Amino acid sequence: MTATQSVTLERVLDAPIDLVWQMWTDAEHFAAWYGPTGATVPVVEMDVTIGGTRHFCLEMQTPDGQSRMWFVGEYRVIDPPTRLVYTESMSDPDGNRISPEAMGVPGGHPEVTEVTVELTDVDGRTRMVMTHAGVPADSPGAMGWNMALDKLEAHLAA
Amino acid sequence: MLTADHPIDDNRLDETFAALANPTRRAILARLAEGEATVNELAAPFDMTLPAISKHIKVLERAGLIGRSRHAQFRPCRLDPAPLADVAGWAEQYRSIWEERFDRLADHLEHIQQPSQGSEP
Predict the structure, then answer these.
(1) Chain B partners of A34 at a C-beta cutoff of 8 Å?
(2) What residue ranges do the domains of chain B occupy?
(3) Nearest CA of chain B to the CA of A52: how many Å?
(4) Contact between B101 and A130 (Cβ < 8 Å)
(5) Would the CB atoms of B21 and A32 count as touching at under 8 Å?
(6) Is the peptide bond before A110 cis (omega within 30 degrees of 0)?
(7) Which of A63, A91, B65, B79 is most exposed, with minimal Cβ within 10 Å?
(8) In this structure, what are the phi and psi dihedrals at residue A56, rounded to the nearest 5 degrees?
(9) A27 touching B, CB under 8 A?
């Protein structure tokens, strides 16, 4: 239960590498696939430059009614069409970062995460390797949640 | 737990996360991690009415996160950690989100690459 976890997924997509690159860097394409099932991505702003801002909104239904979650981040590596690295945090509608705890996200979620997308051409198809990693952050909020989760883990082990 | 033979039920995971997506409900769970408590005890730290707290407890109950004993007079709540095991690690939890995303990405790619020449009238 640390903030430095990561998850890596690999897919081979039946599409040319330039098109797969657009899926990540073109707002319209991104909005078409990124939201969870039943959710929409009503707002996407992407300034695909180093240090440029990405800011978008997921809209979904919850037991408490319709909810909007905002995310903000910046591009760190832009190497078309093979490598893209960007950060992601929860935010308010104006793009000000908000701690995951304040946003109500459980699980010791780190305040800033980093997504790395690596694309390789494989005879006209594209191998995509995506790594989503936590950026270590020892905010007081994260500590509070880690303590709660430690308790829960102890409970689970009991 | 997440295994190849027993994947996480996405609907249940959605319900778990929706239930957890509220600071009051998380505080209730954190309190119950220390031991069972009555609704009155759970309500004590909050500046909320009992019905409001009861509503939060019902959401947690529906998500299977807490259980309540049927026979006890005051029906204390207790934590049921099973659904939490599925969401214990944020990164691992993201795996199913990304898998689902990439399914949609593949569908979207297929959709936009449908032949627009030669197959249309």
Answers:
(1) 101, 104
(2) 10-109
(3) 23
(4) no
(5) no
(6) no
(7) A63
(8) -150, 170
(9) no
Disruptive mutation site among A7, A8, A116 for chain B (greatest number of B CBs within 10 Å): A7
Does the predicted TM-score (pTM) go above 0.80? Answer: no
Q: Which of B31, B90, B37 is nearest to A106 (CA)?
A: B90
> What does the pLDDT look like over B12-59, one tens digit per residue?
667 777 888 788 888 888 888 878 888 888 888 888 888 899 899 999
Of A5, A108, A152, the CB nearest to B81: A152
- For B10-109, CATH number? 1.10.10.10
- Residue B4's pLDDT band, with cuts at 50, 70 and 90, is very low
For B31, the closest chain A residue by CA position comes to A148
Q: Is there a contact between B81 and A23 if contact means CB atoms under 8 Å apart?
A: no
Mean pLDDT, chain A, whole residue set: 83
Q: Which domains does chain A have, with CATH numbers?
A: 6-157 (3.30.530.20)
Q: b/e per residue, A33-61, with b = 16+ CB within 10 A?
A: bbbeeebebeebebebeeeeebbbbbebe
Q: A127: closest CA among A30, A14, A34? A: A14
